[in-house]
Amino acid sequence: MAMTTNATVYAPVHVLPERGHLEPLAPGATIEREAEAARIILSWPGLRVILSRMPDAEMGRHLHWLQGLVRSKGGGEALATRTLATLSVYGFVVEPQFDREGRAMRLVGGLTAATDGLCLLEDGKLYDAAGRELLDGPPVLGPPAAERVAARALVLLALSMRGLLEEDAGKPDEPQAEALRVKLATWLERHAALRDELEAHERTVLIAPIGKAQRQAIIDAVWAAEGAQVLLFALGARALPAHDDQEHPYKVAREIGVLGATPPALLDGPQLASLEELLCLQRRLLAIHWRAVNQRVRPGTVDFLKLASKDFLRGVDLTGIAVVDGDLSVHGASFSRAAPSDLEIVSSIARERHHAANWLIGVHATYSRVVTPT
Questions:
Q1: Among 353, 358, 352, 354, which Cα is nearest to 370's?
Q2: Helices marked H in 215-339
Q3: For residue 5, is pLDDT > 90?
Q4: Looking at 245, 267, 289, which one is the last position of a domain?
Q5: Are the CB atoms for 157 and 249 separated by under 8 Å?
Q6: Strands (E), 323-368
Q7: Which of 78, 95, 127 is the last residue of a domain?
Q8: What's the pTM?
Q9: Vertex 350 angle, CA 357 and 253, to 5°
Q10: Residue 115 and residue 131: Cα distance in Å, rounded?
C-alpha cells in the first residue's frame, strides 16, 4: 500500500482505539486523545496524523456508498457483504502530505491488520488486512475449496452432537454422554482435515467435560447443524430441509459418517456447486433471514413475493419455498400469523443457514468471522 493524503479503515470493532492499541503501531509518536471529538492525534517531528471515528448515525449511508463502489468495480458479492461487518469507520488525515519514512502508512496498515478490517486509500484502492488489493482484477474473495467445505460440515455436525450431549449433565446418563464426548473429540483429532478446520473456540467446547462448557457456547454448538445442512447441500450430499423444518443432528451425522471407523466418504474428492449456484443459494437464504428479522423489528403482514421482485431482494429465486397469502409460510400459516415459538425456531434456522451460505461465497475465510447482515 502506498500512502496518500487520506485513508479510511473499516473495522469490525465498535471502539475508538486506546493508547495501548496504537503505541505498538506508531513507535515514537506522541498520542493525544480528544474524547469529545472522537479523534486521536499522533505526532512525530514534522508529521501529524489525525485519526477520527465516524459517528454511528452517518455510517449507514457511508457503507451503502462503499457497497456501491465495490459492486461498480467488480469486487463481487462476497466483498460487498463483507463491508457490512463494519462497526467503526476510522478516517486518517496526514499532515503534511509527504511522509518519507512511511510512519503514517504503517499506522494505517497496522490498524487494518489488528482489527481484520478493510482499508480504502484516497486513490480508490481497497485493501484487506493481508495487504491484498481487492478491486484491481478478478474478485479476491471467493468460495472455499470443496475439501474445506466437507471438513467444515463434519466439524459442525460434531459440534452439534457435542452440544446435545450437554442435556445429560447432572443426570444418570452423564457418564455415557462424557464417554461419547471423548470419542467425538478423539475422532476429530484423528483426521487431519478435521483437526485443521477446527477453530480454537470450537475445540474448547469439544474438550470441555459434560457440564463444564459455557451455556452460550453449547447453544451455538447445537445450532451449528443447520449450517452443516447448507454445506452438505452445496456439496450435493443431501437435500436442504425446508426453511421451517429440521432434521435431528444425530441422524444427519450418522448418515454422513461422523464417528465412523474410516475417514468419511465426504472427504474423498468432494465437488462444490458453482459460484453462480452458491450465489443463488445465498440470496434465497438471505431473503428468508431478512423476513425473520423484519418480523421481529416490524411485526406485521408482508407481501414477500412482491418484495422478492424489487429492491435488494430483486431476482431471488423462490422456487420451492412455501408461501401463504403472498408471505413466507411457517408450518402452513403466513409468517405474520405463525406461533411465536415457531417463529423463534425458524429465525434461528434462517440465521445459521444464511451464515453458512455467506461463508460459501467467500465473505470471510474463517467461519466464525462471517457476518449475516440483512
A1: 358
A2: 215-234, 249-256, 275-297, 304-307
A3: no
A4: 267
A5: yes
A6: 323-324, 327-330, 333-334
A7: 127
A8: 0.92
A9: 70
A10: 13
49: cell is: 496524523
Q: Angle at CA 350, nearest 5°, toward 349 and 354?
A: 120
Task: Give the range of the structural domain holding residue 203, as residue numbers without chain letter.
Answer: 146-267
- Count how many domains the chain has: 3
Query: Could you tell me the maximum CA-CA distance found in the chain, to the nearest angstrom?
Result: 72
Q: Based on the fold, state whether residues 262 and 282 are members of the same structural domain.
A: no
User: Locate cell 447482515: which residue?
Assistant: 373
User: Residue 1 falls within a domain, yes or no?
Assistant: no
| 164-221 pLDDT tens trace | 999 999 999 999 999 999 999 999 999 999 999 999 999 999 999 999 999 999 999 9
Does 258 share its domain with 299? no
Per-residue model confidence (pLDDT) at position 6: 87
Sheet strand arrangement including 118-121: 30-34, 39-44, 47-53, 88-95, 6-11, 118-121, 126-127
Tell me the one-letter amino acid at 288.
Answer: I
Residues 328, 290 share a domain: yes
d(CA 81, CA 88): 16
Q: Which of 105, 106, 66 is nearest to 85 (CA)?
A: 66
Q: Are residues 169 and 239 in the same domain?
A: yes
Closest by alpha carbon to 225, among 244, 246, 209, 205?
246
Location of C-alpha cell 451455556: 215
| Chain-centroid distance, C-alpha 170 | 34
Compute the distance between CA of residue 300 and CA of residue 277 in angstroms, rounded to an integer: 32
Kindly calculate the radius of gyration of the chain based on its CA atoms and give it in whole angstroms.
Answer: 23
Task: Evaluate whether 272 touches 263 at the Cβ level (below 8 Å).
Answer: no
Determine the Cα–Cα distance for residues 119 and 121; give it in Å rounded to an integer. Answer: 6
For 365, what's the count of Cα atoms within 13 Å in the CB-facing half-sphere? 8
Does 18 have pLDDT greater than 60?
yes
pLDDT 10s digits, 230-245: 999 999 999 999 999 9
